[in-house]
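Lab notebook, bench 4. The sequencing result for the construct came back, and we need a structural model before the next group meeting so we can plan mutations. Quick request posted to the team channel:

Model the 3D structure of this chain.
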Amino acid sequence: MKIKYIIPSIGDSNSSSSASHLVRIDRRTRNQYVDFDSNGVRRNRMNRYGEIVTKLSVSHIQEMGVDPVLEAMCKTVQNKLFPMKSLDDKSNFMNNIGFKYSDFEYDLYYGRSNNRYFLNGRNMNKGEVIKSISKIIIRSSLTMSGEQLIKYAERVLDFPHNVLYALENRTPYHFSVDFRKTEVVINTRLISDKEVVLEISDSVWGVMTLKELNTFIEYFKHGKRRSKKWIDIPLENFWTELMGSPPSRTELEKMKQWLLQHRTQDLVEDRATKLLFDIDAESPSIRFVQFKNPANKALFVRGKYADWVIAYTGVGMKRGRQDVKTYKIGNVLGENKSRQSWHGHELSGSICIDNVSKGASIGDQLTARALALVNEDVAAKHLYTITPFITEKIRSGEETYPRLDMSKLNDWSHRSANKYLAKKEEERRNK
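Done. Here's the predicted structure in token form:
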């Protein structure tokens, strides 16, 4: 049979992608996949293309560092493509998943033999098989090339998931600075089929086996204490483990300063800021501006019916459901003063728009809301907190909202922000 997955996008939009594959599965798994209600009527009816459609249920709020789409796909694969636990009598089985493209076809064979799970001839535990299949299915929704899918799949099968994560995203690590936990990422390169190197200082690379790296990431990314060796390992001991001898005082200080240049928070902020400059350059209806003071980041949006500002006024890159605030720009202020005002215009109260996933960068949050508000007709259909502002009288033109003079806006810049923050720090010290 043919299975089609609907994979929701993470963000404030309602967009989605899809992945399809052929599957040949044993009778127990097939009966599990095709659901029947209490009257014996099949729930999973095929669409007109002969596909059984399954929509992933993606949790709206996820823990930091967790990929909600991958987690949802893993649950679906386990529930649909593996025998139910009640039927799982540890007997042998083998299933086949086939991907067809115009250039290549690719097959996955998985199952259990002699009480061990396998995937394309590689022995793995059940969790690893499920995660590998899930990653490959998700990747298949993003490419039209069988050759590209094969290359990706072989990479997934050849390396433990944690190791692959480090090669693609760098290795996570944290240590204490002034009694504060500081999270960093470390450049990681593969040097053989058994070893990697980590850049723990400027042009200083330490060797670690794939097995050690896997355990290392289990703790520093997932918090799993499977090996006491790496738990809260300080900088000096970390150097010694990778280099074979203790560092000098100078080497230790250089290591510390090098790693501080790769703080996760700083890297996220840099990427977020670049995203805001990009959206400013690409969209004539959106400007990356200062809000209230030079340090606060905001996107001004000239919508179809109204002007809006989406602002972030916090310090650092926080994570939550509403890290940024959305305001509709209102009437020009007269003699009446308003606490919520900006460039001579009243601001509405902060409009609640929740993040779909926990851990989205500030740049992602600002951009998602700005793009939604460029066309309020669409936004009003999906964001109920926007709906009251877009009335029929507004749509017809019988009523209009005031517009802000864009020449009054101040573009955001690193220089202005740093100058402002330095001045505030000096004032604090002089108190």
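Confidence is low (pLDDT under 50) at residues 315-320.
Will bring this to the meeting.
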